[in-house]
Amino acid sequence: MLFKGSCHCGDLRIEVEGEIGEVIDCDCSICRMTGYLHWIVDKEQVKFHAQSDSLATYIWGSGEARHYFCRTCGVAPLRRPRLAPEGYSVNVRCLEGVQIEGLDIKPYNGRDLK
User: Could you give the maximum distance between any two Cα atoms of the chain, in Å?
Assistant: First the structure.
């Protein structure tokens, strides 16, 4: 199945090929504050398009994780997670037509991750 999504203003667009299985609800500070719900996918499953200079990157902690967000609206549809740096974490809240209530959401203790 092909999922399409974007940031709020549409400057960052993503297409993801696959079936949404388990979704991760991490309780680290950034995920908790932004409401990010992670769908971990291989990088080959994702096409990422950015308008002009709208793409911004936030790097924190160990420096491995990359939080890609829109300079215009601030929404983050995609991340490169520290625990799976060979893939991407797609924010399922940014995908069109996904009903959050129907997903298999697993809690993850990212708050205590060192």
Answer: 37
Start-end of H helices in 1-114: 29-34
d(CA 50, CA 53): 7
Of 96, 71, 82, 97, the residue nearest 24 (C-alpha):
82
| Residues composing the chain | 114
Please give the backbone phi and psi of residue 90, each rounded to the nearest 5 degrees, phi first. Answer: -95, 135
> What are the domain boundaries of the chain?
2-108
What class is the 2-108 domain? Answer: mainly beta
Cα first-last separation, the chain: 35
Q: What is the pLDDT of residue 114?
A: 58
Summarised one tens digit per residue, pLDDT across range 29-57 is 888 999 999 999 999 999 999 987 899 99
Both tokens assigned to 18: 């696959």
Could you say which DSSP state residue 1 is in? -
pTM: 0.90
